[in-house]
Specification:
145 residues; six-stranded antiparallel β-sheet
Length: 145
């Protein structure tokens, strides 16, 4: 009986890890917040903890961006004629939005280890850059104010 409980708990833990990894790496889960969550003063802290956003080694991200536009509008960036060198990788080409999008930039103020991260909120409008495949945007690469 004890062995069955242990096996059940192992399967439960293993399944949750697969679900977490499958969800965490999508552009929509990491960066899209439409319509914008109504978390008032501590928007960045709330969203980053709610979505488990952190570096692979469980340290705090120095900066994270949430995009407040419809997913269809974000998908249309892949049809943009504006292909540029990605901000983070000079050898990779990105598609850049032709118009500015509403975004919130979360900048780390204090903390080093997740979940003890505290962020400053900076709402702005910016052109965004994404990489795309045949199905649409794959990764968020940066923004230009």
């Amino acid at each position: 009986m004890v062995l069955m409980v242990i096996i059940f708990l192992m399967l439960l833990f293993w399944e949750n890890e697969l679900n977490e990894n499958g969800v965490l790496f999508t552009l929509e889960h990491l960066h899209v917040d439409y319509p914008q969550d109504s978390a008032p003063v501590r928007y960045c802290n709330h969203m980053i903890q709610q979505r488990l956003i952190r570096e692979p080694d469980h340290t705090c991200k120095l900066e994270h961006v949430f995009i407040h536009e419809r997913p269809q509008k974000i998908n249309s960036i892949c049809m943009s004629p504006k292909r540029v060198a990605c901000l983070n990788h000079s050898t990779i080409f990105c598609f850049q939005s032709e118009t500015k999008f509403r975004v919130t930039v979360c900048e780390l103020m204090e903390g080093t280890r997740y979940p003890a991260c505290r962020y400053r909120i900076s709402p702005t409008q910016a052109f965004i850059q994404v990489t795309c495949d045949d199905l649409g945007p794959v990764s968020f690469e940066g923004y230009i104010e």
